[in-house]
């Protein structure tokens, strides 16, 4: 079969099943009678692939029964009709009359102060919608943020299957690039790694969900101070590399970390301090995993995770500023006698899925610096990035803490956290 058509058909299966199985729950849990999603060609909206096109008034009406009525006003019916997802198509001029006939008490529209993915409507588009609805029905408009969140985070089986395949592909590509297949110590630069990934994705008809990014050098036994910060740095023996990246494909996006250590001459395995820091990180994952469950809010879950970390003998740090923006304390040798030798842990189990980018994705996020998503409840079949950092003092670093960040994409079901592909269990060795 033609690959382009196969991808299109799989997207349509996901779209129809989301409308059939998830949308009724999302609308009724949020007490929404009608959802109007406004899209305008030339003004890209985050839900283009969710709904099928980028033009028109996408109107979803709860008329009772098992399904939600789906209609498009002013859209391209020749495009959308082939998806099999919509019931009927009408002109833009008929929107006001239709809404009045349905008489919805609450109308959710894609405007939101806190969630970018639900804020696609422009100011002029909003004014135009108000004019079409009239004063009475315009007064019934509410933000579609909570509705869109619940619609996206509950994954259907066809979606989960696609995401699992994408996660496995991400894992394989990262582990290939962090190996002797690509890395030649003393010759390969950090930027070479990034370009290799981009070339592979172009060949697959996919894109990088995290943008163009090169590995970071967390530790080097040989590099001079600061030189490993340059993208032109040539990877040396004794380097510990971390790559944080993902793939965007078919309205899905992954977010994965992997590590590699370049063996020095005579070495056969990891230095002892790095090995110990790695083992500590894996133990933390075992502590956190059973505490993430369906039915609790992200805030409640984060507090419980912090308690679990402390009870396990680690030091929990609630980061209220993004670590990438300076939210991590100094990793220098301990000054507090009570913390000597202890592993510090901070958590960022964030929403992920449709973009791979946690800043615009919708869903509950367990992180102190993502408070705007803390009130959201973890729903069944929620895909998230199981991410945290465990920073352990390492003798090789003069007692400074080595921050090992673990990140794999997982799913929360009624039975707890389950892996969508093989999670990280080791630091890969480059010979």
* Radius of gyration, whole Å: 24 Å
Fraction in beta strands: 15-25%
Level of helix content?
25-40%
Low-confidence stretches: none
Write down the CATH class of the largest domain. Alpha Beta
Give me the side-by-side strand order of the main sheet. 4-3-2-1-5-6
> What count of helical segments does DSSP give?
10
CATH architecture of the largest domain: Alpha-Beta Complex
Identify the CATH homologous superfamily of the largest domain: Creatinase/methionine aminopeptidase superfamily
Intertermini distance: 41 Å
Q: Oligomeric form of this entry?
A: single chain
Structure classification: alpha/beta
Q: What count of domains describes the coordinates?
A: 2
**Helix and strand element order:** HEHEEHEHEHEHHHEEEEEEHHEEEEEEE
Overall geometric form = elongated
**Mind summarizing the main beta sheet?**
6 strands, mixed
Mean pLDDT over the full residue set? 94
Q: Tell me the total number of β-strands.
A: 19
What name does CATH use for the topology of the largest domain?
A: Creatine Amidinohydrolase
